[in-house]
Structures are given as C-alpha cells and as structure tokens.
Amino acid sequence: MRSFGIGGGLEKQRCDNCPIRDWALCSTLESPAALALSTIANFKHFPAGQVLQCSHTDPSWYAVIVAGVVKLAKTLADGRQQIVGLQFPADFLGRPFAASSAFQAEATTSLLLCCFPKNDFEAVMEEHPCLEGALLRRTLDQLDTARDWMFTLGRKTAQERLASLLFVIAERLVPASGSSPSDEGTLTFDLPLSRIDMADCLGLTHETVSRELHELKEKGVIATRGRRTFILPDPAALEHLAKGAEAVTNSDSLAGS
Amino acid sequence: MRSFGIGGGLEKQRCDNCPIRDWALCSTLESPAALALSTIANFKHFPAGQVLQCSHTDPSWYAVIVAGVVKLAKTLADGRQQIVGLQFPADFLGRPFAASSAFQAEATTSLLLCCFPKNDFEAVMEEHPCLEGALLRRTLDQLDTARDWMFTLGRKTAQERLASLLFVIAERLVPASGSSPSDEGTLTFDLPLSRIDMADCLGLTHETVSRELHELKEKGVIATRGRRTFILPDPAALEHLAKGAEAVTNSDSLAGS
DNA sequence: CGTCCACTTGATGGGCATCAACCGAAGTGG
DNA sequence: CCACTTCGGTTGATGCCCATCAAGTGGACG
Fold first, then answer.
1. Nearest Cβ partner for B155 among A80, A142, A150
2. pTM for this one?
3. Any chain A CB within 8 A of the CB of B81?
4. In which domain, by residue range, is B130 found?
5. pLDDT in tens, A105-120
6. H or E stretch including A113?
C-alpha cells in the first residue's frame, strides 16, 4: 500500500484510502491546499525505538502520523528525562519556523508517517495561508494539552498521575482502533509505552509506576493482560481518580487476597 | 495617555508611542493588517489581582500586554492550583477558536492591555491571513516554553525550580525595563509574583519556596531588597543551578554568619 | 497601637526515590 | 535441548526531600 509509485493520480488515490483523512491537518484545508499537499506527500515506515529528530540534527521533513505513537522528550546531561508530549495518529510532527526543535522525537511503536519535504511544505504554506491557520488550531490544542499536563506534573499524586495518563491515552487510542466497545463501556487498548516511558511522562520512577499500577488493579479500576494490554472496566471511575477525587471509602483495604 | 479619544489618526499615533511596538504581534504583520488592528485597538487598565477571564465566562476581547504580568492558572475543586503560564509585555492574551479557555487569567501586577474586540479581531484575521501566521509563530514559542516548564515540574529539585523561575523571569523582565545593567552583569528586577504564586508556578508550597530562597541567598547567587526586588550578582551561576548542576563545593556551609 | 497579611522559621511525618533482589520472557550459543 | 545472558518489570527495605502543621516576625494600614 505504500509502494504505489509517483503519479499524481495515485497520490490522490492514496489519500482516499488514508485511515486518518477525516482527522488530520489536510482534512481541514481548502481543497487546493489539500491537493498541493497530496502531491508532495510520501509515506515512510519506522521501527519502534527509532529516533526521528533531535535538538541538533533536524530531519528535512514535516509529517503527519498515520499509525503509531511518537514521544517528545527532553533529556539532561545527568540522565534525567521528561516526556513532554505524546503524538498520536493524525497529529502533526515538526517545528516550523525554527532551525531545530528543542526536543527529541522517538517512535514508541512501529510507525507509519505521511512525510512532506520541508522546503516543499513551506512553499505550500506560502501559497496557501489556510495551512497556517490549520496549524495554528492544532498548535493551540497542543498548548492546552501541555498546560493540562503541567497541572498533573505539579500538583497530582503518583496515583492520580497514573490514572490521568491511562485515561488520556485511552481517549486518544480507543476511537482510532475499533477496540470492542461491546462490553458495556469497558475499554481495551494496547499501551504504546514501556513502564520507563510512563515514568518519564509522569515525573516518577519506574518502580513507583509499577507499585501504583498494582494499587489501581486492587482498586479494580484497571486490569491488564500481558504487559501492554490494559482493560478499563469503568472508565468513569478512572477519570474520577485522575481528576483528584479520593472517593474510595471501603473497598480500599481488601488488599490481602 | 489612554484617554486619547477615538479618531483613527490618534489611534495610529498611539501605536507610534507604543512601548512594545517592536516586539508585539503587530510588529510582524504586513502593514495593512497592522493598520486594521490599530483601528480596533483600545487600551484598558486593570489593578493587580483582577481576574481577566475564567473557564466559563470569557471576555469579549483579545489583547496584547503593554505593561504588567498575567498568570494563567488551573485550579481543582479541592484547592490545588498550578500556574501554567506567565505572560509578559508583548505577549498575546486569549484563546482563538474556542468558546472558552480552560485556564483562568489573572493580573499579578497592575496591567495595561491593548484590547481588540473579539468579533473585530476575527474579522481582521479572515481579511488578513498573515495574522494567523503571526499568531502561529507565537503559539509555537509558547508551546516550547510550556514543554520546557514541564521538564522543570517533572524532574527538577525544589532549588533548581526556584533558580529556573528566577532566571526565566529575569530574562523576560530585564530587557524591557531598562534596569541598570551598569554593574558588570548584575541584574536587578521586581518580581511580579508573591511567594504563593511562585509556589503555584513550581508545584511546591510557599514554605518550601521561602526556605529555598534562603538557601540561594546563602549560596550568594541571589540577593533581595524588600520582598519583591531581586538582585542577581551572577546570572550565569543562577542559570547553572537552574540547568541542574550541583557544582557548589565549599561555599556551601558558611551558613552561620 | 492593634490588626492583618505576606512571609519566615521550626518540628514532624509521609510520599516517593533510591538501592537491591528477584522474576519471567526472549534471545544466544553450545 | 538446556545453561547463560539480557532486559523489562515487580517487589521489598530504607531514607530523604518536601509537605504539613504550627508558631513567630515584620511591614502596612486603619
């Protein structure tokens, strides 16, 4: 599906089949701009763990995520690391108007990107100002997301942070993959992060992540199958925990099973 | 200076005198767009502590800060609060493309804003797409700032956080007010925040802020005159502390003065 | 001069980091 | 097929950083 050749018509057809065409940047553009983008787009695959860009060597392209998850992280010389953003399918990758990004982007799962050569993309942007408008809307959303996360990092307990992370990821991942919403509100999804990644998202250690996951399981708000598959029997309860409500009163101390 | 009347020519003149005209949004616009903005602009004053907008009642205008500092904060029902952004002179205020902002904006000092009625501003934005481009650039910068701060909240110690905050504020405030850079690199500025505000920026308590400020004074990287005036004898040393370098070796234990 | 408020300083404890051991799954090589 | 290693993850023991509770200080202001 990604070796379709180079003809304009085929590009167009590729967009028609695109799984994210209704949510991505291009979906909100006027059609001439969308068409211009489609002619410069090409798909790229990356394996999990691949570094996409880093502070000093920027790639020569922008991209929209078609499938997979990307983490944006900042690392200090002494090894401290913080993940400052998670990018999901339909999200935009790249930092316009800057020679280089201050953060490192890395694939946390295997990845399919719809890439646009940097120069070509900027040419389209000059030609079609509506592209800047579309980017502005997405950037404002990202800013809101980042600021919400700042609250999580600054003021929530370890358990609330875990609940917040799981809830946010479930929200982004479940509608995309049609993961059986059959069971009366139960959500199931594959977490695109290792325990260490989770810790780096949350400003915690991986040991604490492990312990608090255990706690959440005993409270019954999450369950797991294997190391990556998470089941939320009652997403509302998880959200409640995430928003900072210590409401559990009695089911709290039946831990000794 | 703010009671100049309503004539178009006077508006223009007002812009000529504007102290931030070389840094604000309008400075990067093509001249017809800048002119269109100038005709809908009007100044407003606010006292320190005034709430400008909150989650459910948005103001009917956007604004550029002419003088003063604004904090953006998120508060939980149980009282936990986190400041998620500080806006300085020349920064833009408001959340385009959303019915309401998720955060509360409050003046931390007395404030002078250059306001644009919401509908008028959006009309100018449709007429002049370069305005969206200018907003995009600023929003991307804000996003970088927010993500840098996420690292501070997630991974730095209390002292490093304090150093980071003071350094960031000094960077923004010192070039604006021409505060004597006479003394060989020494920087002086008035902190636009109370101790509680500082704590809410940093995810700490005000007691910890107080103690760590004391520590920084003993280390000699800061000095204070009164409660709001801060002196940085060696900004580079402060930056060093902020970036996470525990380099102080001997001058650490001469506390008993 | 008394009250208030922002701030400071002190005493204590808890939440999470740190250090360490262990476990199980996935290679790797004989 | 089975030792051996590696790596992500879990569990346990201990300690420290910072929150919490509490009291004290000093400037502003009526």
1. A80
2. 0.90
3. yes
4. 2-149
5. 999 999 999 999 999 9
6. strand A111-117
